[in-house]
Amino acid sequence: MKPTLKALLALTLFTLLTVSSTLAADPENTLYLDLKDGQVVIELRPDLAPKHVARIKELVRMNFYDGILFHRVIDGFMAQTGDPTGTGRGGSGQNLPAEFSQEPFNRGTVGMARAQSPDSGDSQFFICFAPSHFLDGQYTVWGQVVSGMEFVDKIKKGIGQSGMVSNPDKIITMRVAADVE
Question: What is the 3-state secondary structure (H, E, C) of 96-116?
Fold first, then answer.
């Protein structure tokens, strides 16, 4: 059976788009988040939050996030991690100024957790399971999951409105793509 010209053109276009999107990815602004079920790829957004992205990369390069628990996971909302104590009260010890934007919190958006003060973001972050537009303009968006969201969906959920998890899942490793490619 001979392929049609239309089929060949479609295949060529698909190949070009795939190669183009692969080459367009910036390894310095891409994170690999390894979970028990697979790898999550996060595109960093220095255009929205340059100070947060710089600090996250600094912590990642210190292996700060390796082995950290997902201490708060609310089904249909988000999975939160980044606290070395696992209690939801810890951090790296360096607060960041808020970098709020108009970027919406959609499925796969990665945002910085914070306390009451807008300038209290530190090392804790969350990944949205679903659109959470009530957070828009009130929390810093610093990344977007571009692949592996099915693995985020498998993170063990917490109990009740607090979402605190008993025997929680953890980050296995988190790396800047430029450091492993």
Answer: ECCCCCCCCCCCCEEEECCCC
